[in-house]
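Session log. Operator J.P. requested a structure for one protein chain; no other inputs attached. Running the standard single-chain path with token output.
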Amino acid sequence: MSSTEVAAQVANMYDTILILDFGSQYSHLITRRIREAGVYCELLPCTQKISELKFKPKGVVLSGSPYSITDKDAPHVDPEVFNLGVPILGICYGLQEIARNLGGETSLAVKREYGHAELTLDPQADHHSYHLFQDVPSPTNVWMSHGDHLESPPNDFVIIGSTSTSAYAAVAHTTLPIYGIQFHPE
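Structure written below.
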């Protein structure tokens, strides 16, 4: 039995989070942090065709990337990921990939941002996004590492967090469990 077949068997035995890797230096750290929380996850390339998955994930994480979302050769996710009907979290480039697929606008940032930033949260208590930052103080320090940014979120997304340099540091769909964050929580 191949390692891919074994991984598929294990993924079908447990609730599994699918992490789609866009080449981020943090992808393995994301995987480790999720597993440390007691949740099984599989790290696969961002080019993974959803129709070829051997399991149905309980949620999806779209990682960061060293690419610019505006590069002609930038990697992109299979748009079918948005039809899985499971929670999706886009981290940094993953946020921009959500915007690209769902009608938002991204652009090169005036200045690359690398380092600590202060995130001010605005979770709506009556909105499902409230749980994303439950028990996180506001403001809170976060780690930024990006050269692109969200210019405007897709329709039906609300702002749930911002920094002094990123008006859309955290966004959430109004009805679907789709979230995007510009910073790296891992």
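Operator note: Helices lie at 3-13, 27-36, 93-102.
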